[in-house]
Prior knowledge:
alpha/beta, seven-stranded mixed sheet, two-stranded parallel ribbon, 31% helix
Amino acid sequence: MEAFTTHTGRAVPLRRSNVDTDQIIPAVWLKQVSRTGFEKGLFSAWREDPAFVLNQPQYDGATILVAGTDFGTGSSREHAVWALQQYGFRVVIAPRFGDIFRNNSTKMGLLPVVLPTETVEELQSRAEQDPTAEITVDLERREVRAGDLAVPFEIDDYTRWRLLEGLDDIGLTLRHADDIAEFETSRSPLLPTTS
């Protein structure tokens, strides 16, 4: 997993609340057997509307999604995070996230940032007024900066450390590869092994 320290990018204002994972990536897209190509399904039902924000050319290439309250509720599908990442998003800012979505995001390197509703609305307004304006999300300082605005955000120390180090569950396990190998040599040859 790529380490996350600081990210600066343009933002997409998604003025919708209660966005569940089925709206992020509809179930029809889950039939794929590979882990790639989910960006095509991101908000696919909403993208049929030409006025939907992701269809607006001024937001092409934006890497920060600024959404309403309760983003990522519903099912535990990891595909929602994959779709957002593969589309190009590195950060989602919202007043509140679904717990499972937030947990999936941090394990895959997508940073969910919780900010107060009024701050989120201010960031959305700024992105609408000037789509070229950039936002910086600084995980080391736990701070979001946009122009003259600088606001702190909370993230637990363990999750912050994992993201800064770029460690997913496999990466954490591989840090103990020598211990695992030593353990395997001490086990009875009649027991199952891993490889």
